[in-house]
Design brief:
With 110 residues, the protein is mostly helical. The chain is built from six helices and no strands. Helix 1 packs across helix 2 and helix 3 crosses helix 5.
Length: 110
C-alpha cells in the first residue's frame, strides 16, 4: 500500500489474500482511511519493505526446513516421529547424542 492515499475499497481482495479474514481486511481499509498519523518517508518505506521481504524469506526457509526434518525423521526414526512428533523427536536425538545413544537409555531416563 505504501501510502494511505493509495488505499481504496478495490484493494480489499489483495488485503484479504494476506490476512485471510474478510472482517480484518475491511478493518485495515477503514483504519487506513481514518488514520491521522504522519506519512512515512521514502527511506522508511524502503526499510520496512526490506524487513517484510526478509520475514517472508525466513518463514519460507522455516517451512522448507520443517519439511526436510519430517522426511528425515520418517526415514531415520519413524516410530519416534509417530509417537512424539518430528521436532521433539529430533531434539531428543540431538540431546542424547545420537539415535544409538538414545536407544541405550532406559525409559526412566527419557
Amino acid at each position: 500500500m505504501e501510502k494511505r492515499d493509495n488505499i481504496t475499497d478495490e484493494m480489499k481482495d489483495a488485503i484479504l489474500n494476506i490476512v485471510l479474514d474478510d472482517e480484518k481486511a475491511q478493518q485495515v481499509i477503514d483504519a487506513a482511511k481514518i488514520s491521522m498519523g504522519q506519512d512515512m518517508s521514502e527511506a522508511d518505506t524502503v526499510q520496512i519493505k526490506r524487513f517484510s521481504e526478509r520475514c517472508v524469506e525466513l518463514i519460507t526457509f522455516r517451512e522448507s526446513l520443517a519439511e526436510y526434518l519430517k522426511q528425515r525423521m520418517n526415514a531415520v526414526a519413524p516410530n519416534l516421529a509417530a509417537l512424539i512428533g518430528e521436532i521433539v523427536g529430533s531434539k531428543l536425538i540431538s540431546h542424547a547424542g545420537g539415535l544409538t545413544n538414545l536407544a541405550k537409555y532406559p525409559a526412566s531416563t527419557i
